[in-house]
Amino acid sequence: MVNVLFCGNDKVFDGMLTCALSILKRTASAEPFCFYVFTMDVSHIKDNYLPVSEKQMDYFEKITKRYNKDNRAILVDVTDIYMAEFDKCPNESAYCSPYTLIRLFADMIKDIPDKLLYLDADVMFNRDIHLLYDTDISEYEYAAARDHYGKYLVKPNYINAGVILFNMAMVKKTGLLSKARELIKTKKLTFADQSAIIRSTMKKKMLAQKFNDQKFLHKHTVVRHFSKRLFWLPYPHTENIKQWQVDKIHSVFGYHQFDDILDEYITLKEEFERSE
Q1: Is the pLDDT of residue 79 over 60?
Q2: Which of 34, 111, 180, 207 is an S-S bond match for 72, by CB 3.0 to 4.6 Å?
């Protein structure tokens, strides 16, 4: 079974759905998938910090089972863990939201598999997931690709933590995530969870950029990560365009490689909204 982890609040539903569809449509293998979703209710911080709902998760699982009846989707509420570990910590006002921190609880969740692919919700697979998932990480804590900007501005092997293939058995042995949690609790970090993971790493495997392409989409790109990027024209500026913003995917990026996925997403989103 291929094990995938998403994290976030109820606003990640569009990302989960589009990303999962890209995986299911671009993967030829009949091997089933298990999609884990870590979520929490921290509306005491902000009113809209609400968990992924049971209704969203039930619909998400129903769609994945259309591709393979053995596919599963498991919702994990980590509210209690968050309150015990990170409530009022220095990184609670992280650069995105407290939800960026909750993947650091993966080693604390019962029955979490030994191999786990963490994905930010703003990624799309352009090619078969097994090109990434079948990477041998038996001697590493995880595998990740370089950050497009960080490899120039910070250091050559500075990783982007939006796509991480975890060897959870090794992670538990070295204490990678427990060390990262301790940093989150005690130090204000520039990129919160990403910084904590990098500082706590003992042994990582570097992946080619095609496994986390944050700026371009090539034929060889396996994962296109729709993170914030710099545009030079008509003047230097940044934009944070996500894959579910279909009109901008067409008009700004000129991408049509994902049209089959995005067309299905639009239909499914309308179906879900009619059921509310």
Answers
A1: yes
A2: 34
Burial zone of 135 (CB within 10 Å; 0-12 exposed, 13-18 middle, 19+ buried):
middle
Q: Whole domain around residue 148: which residue ranges?
A: 2-275
Say yes or no to pLDDT of 154 above 80. no
Helix pair angle (54-67, 259-275), 10° resolution = 140
CA distance 28 to 23: 10
Provide the whole-model pTM. 0.94
Radius of gyration, CA atoms only, the chain: 18
Residue 152 has pLDDT above 60, yes or no: no
The band of 149, judged by pLDDT with boundaries at 50, 70 and 90, is: low
Report how far residue 76's alpha carbon sits from residue 42's, in angstroms, rounded to the nearest whole number.
Answer: 14
Q: For residue 135, give Cα distances in angstroms to 44, 141, 239.
A: 40, 12, 32
Task: Check: CB of residue 19 under 8 Å from CB of residue 124.
Answer: yes
CATH code where residue 205 lies: 3.90.550.10
